[in-house]
Amino acid sequence: ALFGQFTLKHLNLRKQARQLENELDLKLVSFSKLCTSYSSSRDGRRGDSSDTTPLLNNSTQDRMFETMSVEIEQLLAKLTGINDKMAEYTSTPGVTSLNAALMHTLQRHRDILQDYTHEFHKTKSNFLAVREREDLLGSVRKDIESYKSGSGVNNRRTELFLKEHEHLRNSDRLIEDTISIAMATKENMTSQRGMLKSIQSRVNTLANRFPAINSLIQRINLRKRRDSLILGGVIGVCTILLLLYAFH
């Protein structure tokens, strides 16, 4: 009698497990179709400028997704409980002769539960990834449309600010180039001055030795000073003109 009662309970649990597995199979097929249609409808409406219908469809599909997710999770929980009960009956003393067959049946139900659970989580993750991606793209498109639909005054003001910023950057670059040229010129003139001093010291030595050359050297020095003043004036004027052009 005990063995018959055990067999009856085990068969009842197997029947419940098969019913839940059939329900889960149908639910997962519908769930997968919902996720696929959600992605397809988003792709089809990507170029649509109308907002009323897409928002309604998306909201309805989101509610259906949440409802079906809860239903599938509940069915998975019920099937898990049925499998746990079958595992308890399998370990009941007095059924050693049927233990191998019962363990095989239990393992098959557990494999089915694992496959359904994996399929559910995979489909759900794909749906959430598509929805997050589409929401992000929709937000970017709204920002772009909002920027494009802004008032002409704001757009004009923005353009002026951008032009002024670019003008300032160009002025900074021009000033930096001018300073670099001036520094290079200064270094070159310093080097030339050192060379000229060395030459002048030699010429002074010769002049002291040959008084007739002294007057010629003095005239050369006067011309050199005049040329230096002229060169300095030209450089100063060019620098002032560059600065005026940069801040114009």
TrEMBL record:
Keywords: ER-Golgi transport, Golgi apparatus, Membrane, Protein transport, Transmembrane, Transmembrane helix, Transport. GO terms for biological process: endoplasmic reticulum to Golgi vesicle-mediated transport; inter-Golgi cisterna vesicle-mediated transport; protein transport; vesicle fusion. One of its GO terms (molecular function) is SNAP receptor activity. The keyword Cytoplasm does not apply. It comes from the Eukaryota. The keyword Membrane applies. The chain crosses the membrane at residues 229-247. It is a single-pass type IV membrane protein. GO terms for cellular component: cis-Golgi network; Golgi medial cisterna; Golgi membrane; SNARE complex. Pfam families: V-SNARE_C. Residues 37-60 are annotated as: Disordered. Component of several multiprotein Golgi SNARE complexes. Belongs to the GOSR1 family. Involved in transport from the ER to the Golgi apparatus as well as in intra-Golgi transport. It belongs to a super-family of proteins called t-SNAREs or soluble NSF (N-ethylmaleimide-sensitive factor) attachment protein receptor. May play a protective role against hydrogen peroxide induced cytotoxicity under glutathione depleted conditions in neuronal cells by regulating the intracellular ROS levels via inhibition of p38 MAPK (MAPK11, MAPK12, MAPK13 and MAPK14). Participates in docking and fusion stage of ER to cis-Golgi transport. This is Golgi SNAP receptor complex member 1. It comes from Pygocentrus nattereri (Red-bellied piranha). The lineage of its organism: Eukaryota, Metazoa, Chordata, Craniata, Vertebrata. The gene is GOSR1.
